[in-house]
Amino acid sequence: MRKASSAMRESLDASASTLCNCWRLARKDGQVMGFTDHDRDLVFGGVTYRAATGLVATQIEGSVGLAAGGGEVIGALQSDGLVESDLATGRYDGAGVEIWLVDWSNVENRLLIDATTIGEVTRSEFAFRAELRSLAHFFDETRGDSYQKGCSADLGDARCKVDLSASSYRTTGVVLAATRGVIVAAFAEAFDDEFFTGGSLTVTSGAEAGAGGAIKSHRRFGGNARLALWSQLADGMVAGDGFTLVAGCDKSAASCRSKFSNIVNFRGFPHMPGNDLVISYPSSLAPTMDGGSFFR
After folding, report:
1. CA dihedral 39, 41, 42, 46 (to 10 degrees)
2. ∠ CA 16-22-134 to the nearest 5 degrees?
3. How many independent structural domains does the chain possess?
4. CA–CA distance, 128 with 112 (Å, rounded to integer)
5. Do residues 234 and 180 share a domain?
6. Domain residue limits at 216
């Protein structure tokens, strides 16, 4: 339950409103930004909430219980606010958003309305639309193991236990050319085709430094390498930009055994029967189905 101060209640009951909305956005890289729909900048809590950012929020819906509430924030893409390249490269994915109701005549008189995270972001030529998810959406995330053939762990996490800091699973490189989501680069070491497919790229120098993206495919290209990314990050990179790469994993038992030598920590069930076996008819040509193992 939100508890408003007596001064805030007076502001809410006043016939002439002096209230405005403010949004505090905290990215995962530590950068904090403030926005307001008031006509001048406001400062509180060590953050400057900039006006004239073209930011508008829709009504946020919520309910009693564990159902995830949500809303949207719509804004213009401009150089001193949220820019398209930052949104495209995922710098705002999962960012925390605090929504404040503030008395602009006295910013100490304010009320925290909600705390949310940024979900799906869509972009047009000059504007963006960001989904705001209430903290209840964390209850929708899968917890524990799933009964599936593929591994349910993420590469390098506490359940997988692969050390991704090892040189055998990562490398550095320099962009030689970039166009239409594809990078041609020189690696510090040579790797087989597809080794980094499904992995991640983080830019270490240049205009896009700090941004990252998922790798769609990795191929050798002459004496160099050709990388395709799922995001638009490659379109902002130029020759000479440096980056680091981390290996990808297709979550299969074969890759876990041969690529990472980590089958002892495999978190899937590769030998479980598939749907084709469940719905199949008895046949004298098929293995005897007596409950024993098919792999001994």
Report:
1. 160
2. 120
3. 2
4. 24
5. yes
6. 167-246
| Residue 162 belongs to a domain | no
Residue 250 gets the label, from left (phi > 0), alpha (psi -120 to 50) or beta, of: alpha
Query: Two tokens at 268?
Result: 């899937």
Gap between the Cα atoms of 118 and 92, Å rounded: 7
Cα 237 to chain center, whole Å? Answer: 20
The candidate with the shortest Cα–Cα distance to 253, out of 277, 239, 240, 271, is 271
CATH code (residue 193): 2.40.10.190
Per DSSP, the residues of 214-235 read: EEEEEEEETTEEEEEESSGGGG
3-state secondary structure of 84: helix
182 forms bridges with which residues in the sheet?
Answer: 179, 228
Q: What is the pTM of this model?
A: 0.57
Identify whether residues 29 and 96 lie together within a single domain. yes
Same structural domain for residues 132 and 24?
Answer: yes
Domain for residue 256, yes or no? Answer: no
Question: pLDDT by residue (tens digit) across 189-200?
Answer: 889 999 999 999
Is 240 a member of any domain?
A: yes
Residue 207 included in any domain: yes
CATH of the domain at 136: 2.40.10
Distances (CA, A) of 66 to 70, 94, 134, 136, 140: 12, 20, 10, 6, 9
- Measured in residues, the chain has a length of 296
Main-chain phi, psi angles of 193, to 5 degrees: -55, 145
pLDDT 10s digits, 47-72:
999 886 555 555 554 444 444 445 55
Q: What is the pLDDT of residue 68?
A: 45
Q: What is the mean pLDDT of residues 218-233?
A: 87
The whole-angstrom separation of Cα 265 and Cα 148 is 15
For the four alpha carbons of 236, 241, 243 and 248, in that order, the dihedral sign comes to positive
Q: How many CB atoms lie within 10 A of CB 132?
A: 21
Distance CA 114, CA 61 (A): 11
Say which residues have a Cβ less than 8 Å from residue 284's Cβ, sequence separation at least 6.
none
